[in-house]
Amino acid sequence: MTHGKAVLDELSPLHRALRRAVPDVYAGFGELHRAAFADGALDVRSKELIALAIGVVEGCDGCIASHAQAAARAGATRQEAAEAIGVTFLMHGGPATIHGPRAYDAFCEFAPEDEPAPTTP
Fold first, then answer.
1. What residues have CB less than 8 Å from 108, skipping those under 6 apart?
2. Could you tell me the CA-to-CA distances from 113 to 47, 57, 97 in Å, in that order?
3. Taking 70 as the threshold, does the pLDDT of residue 103 lie above it?
4. Could you report the per-residue pLDDT of 69-97, keeping only the tens digit for each?
5. pTM of the complete model
6. CATH 1.20.1290.10 fits 5-110, yes or no
């Protein structure tokens, strides 16, 4: 089972249908998204890693897939994703140990193939 591309593929037509029904709501959400991810004191990569971690805590597979892809596109490394996900274990406990590995799997689907996997000490 994949936790990245397959989830996005499943949600895409559902989003399109709902967007046609409530276009103003989607437009408003799009503006909020652009404002939240604009460069500032935190770069986009850091913000996407935060969003990925929040997706883990919320148990939101669509959020995980979307922000895993965006974090990879923003240049986050596998190690950075793993560490961001690791913080969720501390802050959210057991449920994060279920969604965390799913998030890491999703991130790895979008990360460059030639990037080495994190090493264990």
1. 4, 78, 117
2. 23, 27, 25
3. yes
4. 999 999 999 999 999 999 999 988 888 99
5. 0.85
6. yes
